[in-house]
């Protein structure tokens, strides 16, 4: 659950420093500050203890009570799990639905397709949305090394920002690529109106092996938000200012 609350607040933020998911959350340390917006991400936990999966012999990860599985099959061959209960899998409803459909097809319909948990797109539905697919810049650096990456980025001004002359630095996009040609796209990130709609379309392209060479050769639809990805040329490595210099970014 996510909520943004306007106003000025003094919030005593209390966080558990214990890895035990069943410990009391309000303990150990208190941080206090004043905020103009409070973002509450309540989250959820796996109910494997309440459902007593251990009685069937199913093993769980002690730190989070989740089940470690490659193809939704637990350590007990005839017990399967899908959704948020799986360890290190995206906690998203569409992921659970897709995995469940494919599992049912394999069990009862002679299907062979496994769930692909890589490059799953998602969006945070805040007033200016944030959408992404693929790797973050930090994760890409961890896997590939900073010297082997090229990070394209830009601020942009949506059409609806022109009349009120809103600050273009509220909207931002980033493309994480391999440095070597043809620069395979490893991640795409977008902050702005309708980010979910924009990223949903590019998610299919990323799963198909999108490269930056293909992206920059694509003609955008003007004026749209999604076209900003086809216009980005500035890299972080260059040190150039990514702020738009004209009405068309």
Automatic annotation (TrEMBL):
Classification via Gene3D superfamilies: 3.30.390.30, FAD/NAD(P)-binding domain
Keywords: Disulfide bond, FAD, Flavoprotein, NADP, Oxidoreductase, Redox-active center
Keyword Flavoprotein found: yes
One Pfam family, short name: Pyr_redox_dim
Domain Pyridine nucleotide-disulphide oxidoreductase dimerisation: start-end pairs: 120-231
Keyword Ligase applies: no
Any Gene Ontology CC annotation: cytosol
BP GO terms, sorted: cell redox homeostasis; cellular response to oxidative stress; glutathione metabolic process
Cofactor: FAD
InterPro entries per record: FAD/NAD-bd_sf, FAD/NAD-binding_dom, FAD/NAD-linked_Rdtase_dimer_sf, GSHR/TRXR-like, Pyr_nucl-diS_OxRdtase_dimer
Every FAD/NAD(P)-binding domain range: 34-100
Gene Ontology MF: a single term: glutathione-disulfide reductase (NADPH) activity
Residue ranges that the Swiss-Prot or TrEMBL entry lists as coiled coil: none
Annotated family: Belongs to the class-I pyridine nucleotide-disulfide oxidoreductase family.
Cited PANTHER family: GLUTATHIONE REDUCTASE
UniProt-recorded name of the protein: Thioredoxin reductase 1, mitochondrial-like
Natural source organism: Diaphorina citri (Asian citrus psyllid)
């Amino acid at each position: 659950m996510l909520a943004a609350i306007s106003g000025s607040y003094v919030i005593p933020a209390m966080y558990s420093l214990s890895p035990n998911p069943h410990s009391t959350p309000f303990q150990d340390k208190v941080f206090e500050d004043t905020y103009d917006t409070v973002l509450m991400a309540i989250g959820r936990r796996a109910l494997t203890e309440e459902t007593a999966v251990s009685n069937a012999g199913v093993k769980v990860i002690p730190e989070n009570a989740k089940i470690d599985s490659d193809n939704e099959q637990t350590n007990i061959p005839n017990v399967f799990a899908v959704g948020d209960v799986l360890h290190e899998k995206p906690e998203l409803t569409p992921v659970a639905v897709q995995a469940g459909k494919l599992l049912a097809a394999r069990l009862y319909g002679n299907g062979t397709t496994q769930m692909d948990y890589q490059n799953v797109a998602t969006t945070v539905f805040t007033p200016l949305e944030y959408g992404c697919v693929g790797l973050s810049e930090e994760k890409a650096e961890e896997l590939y090394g900073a010297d082997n990456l090229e990070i394209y980025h830009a601020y942009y001004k949506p059409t609806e920002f022109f009349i009120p002359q809103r600050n273009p630095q509220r909207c931002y996009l980033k493309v994480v690529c391999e440095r070597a040609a043809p620069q395979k796209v490893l991640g795409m990130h977008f902050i702005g109106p309708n980010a979910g709609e924009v990223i949903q379309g590019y998610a299919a392209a990323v799963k198909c092996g999108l490269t930056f060479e293909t992206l920059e050769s694509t003609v955008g639809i003007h004026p749209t938000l999604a076209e900003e990805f086809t216009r980005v040329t500035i890299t972080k490595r260059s040190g150039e200012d990514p702020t738009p210099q004209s009405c068309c970014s």
